[in-house]
Amino acid sequence: MINGQHVPPSKLPWQRALITLSTVVTAAFVLGMLYWAQTVFIPLAMAVFFAFVLNPLVTIVERRRLGRTASVLIVVAVALLAFLGTGAVITQQLSSLSKTMVEKSDTVKEKIERLKATFSGGGEEAGLGKMVKDIQDAVLGGQPEKAAGAPGEVVLAPSRPSWFNRLNFIVGPATEAFGLAAFSFVLVVFILLAKDDLRDRVLRLIGDGQMTTATRAADDASQRISHYLLMQFLVNAAFGLIVSAGLFAAGIQYSLLWGFIGFIMRYVPYIGTWIGILPPLFFTTVVSDGWTQPLIVLGLFGGLELFSNNAVEPKLYGKSLGASEVALLVSAAFWSFLWGPIGLILSGPITTCLLVVGKYSPSMSFFHVILGTEPPLSPGMLMYQRLIAGNEDDATRLVEAAIKTDPPLKHFDEALLPALVAVREAKEAGELDAETEARVLKTARAALDNNLEEAPPSDAPNRVRLLTCAARDELDALTVAALARTLPPEKWDVKALAASALASEIADAVSEFDPHVVLIGSLPPGGVSHTRYTSKRLRGRFPGLKILIGRWTDTAEGQTEELIKSGADAVDLTLQAAHNELMGWQSVVLAGVATTPAVGTAVADKSAAASPVGTASA
Predict the structure, then answer these.
(1) What percent of the chain has pLDDT over 90?
(2) Given strand 464-470, what is the order of strands in its sheet?
(3) CATH top-level class of 379-447
(4) For residue 370, what is the enclosing H or E element?
(5) Where does CATH 1.10.1240 sit in the chain?
(6) What's the pLDDT tens digit per position in 376-413?
(7) Which residue, 489, 445, 440, 439, is CA-closest to 464?
(8) pLDDT for residue 127
(9) CB 127: neighbour CB atoms within 10 A?
(10) Peptide bond preceding 515: is omega within 30 degrees of 0, i.e. cis?
């Protein structure tokens, strides 16, 4: 008990604090492990990535009746040969590039001096001039600094030969890279060989009691990820090959190296291509004469990127996995922080896997919410948030955007009614004060007024007179106002009563206005007794009056029948159904055809379906 009220155990403050603390500690532990044990997780992530890429190829080979083991070995062997061949070529190109930069050092210095003179302006140490000088020192090497020490002081240096330091600088990273590659290669082989066993173990963990659903989800997720990553690999490889061929045809040196860089960097979402263009652009700028080659590099990379994004990828990738742009960029920054350049390249595939896993695993659904592009809130909850916040502009834009593609009543049924029901529930629970409620009503009216204007007065003859009234309050009145604005003014003469009108005042208005139809709007929860009383009062005083009750979104069993017994001719649960009901009544009312209302049931008998009068729509 808190403040005299019973609070469910899951909502106790100390339990919420404990859950939050546990989540923070778990997240910190996982992040720490990913960073500290990256020598294990990086090859594991690379192995999973290559396993997803190669698995469709293994499946194709396996269909030739070669067996799983033979298929895996054949595909992995071909991939390994391609990897080693590419690595050898790229290594040779890098070695040759370093020699070229030394041989053309004079040209590089001259070009950098010209760039420095162009951009320095205020001197060598000012602004861009200092930046260009730093680039020159990085590319060609700066002047060696003199040994520290006072004049005449003897500075002792280690007797280790310089070649030993250079060897250690090269061998260390090379050994680490070779170890990671070897570990990833072994993992890829075993993951592909044990694919079914690994899948069964995962299903055992997540599919207890829901094996059918879990199996379908796992198969679908695996196929989608494999297809997506394989297509991405092929598109990126084709991009690199075309870049290499184009640069080679243009006479630009080391075209294979620049194509490989473009292939790798395209895994970095959105900005990868523009990062990959920097090395060849810088090389051609400082080495070549003029600006022809840099412009070729810029045009080739940029043109291929635009063509790939707009023409190739949408067709090859098929159904989008739905990762948002912001999520991909944040993921790239996050994984590059944890794992460096490898994390930057793997960020896209990792995000894709997390997104699909989050879609099919309820316990990890937060990944699908955070990373996905699907709306995080339903249309009703989105409108409810705008109403509670009192944001008239956003509420107006939501309605405006929706009614451009859908009929207004369809959007009102999907968004406005659920939002108003949520407002009513919050009001009943005491969560809304008078000021917030007034702000909600003002915002909702503004969104309605800005998108659906009130019909101007019409002098058209033979119009059906419609009197609209609320069962209880302004929220009910807002619903019938939205419906009334969709009725053609040349066919309907609509009069709306104030939300505060009592049942006796409604009856007096009927006597004065002499309507053909009365529409009573009512939102759940509650309000059934008010609606039933008003309907009974009108039916007892005006036996021939057509009464339509809009009990919006309420599907509670028995309530429709109860309202029909109170004297209503029909009860509808949506604005669209009520609109159709009224339009069906129009010609019947004008023709003076007497109809019999449905009694004791919410759905008209099919034998009376020739006339829509007296039917109840659900």
Answers:
(1) 28
(2) 492-496, 464-470, 517-522, 546-551, 570-572
(3) mainly alpha
(4) helix 365-371
(5) 379-447
(6) 788 889 899 888 888 888 888 888 888 888 888 998 99
(7) 489
(8) 54
(9) 12
(10) no
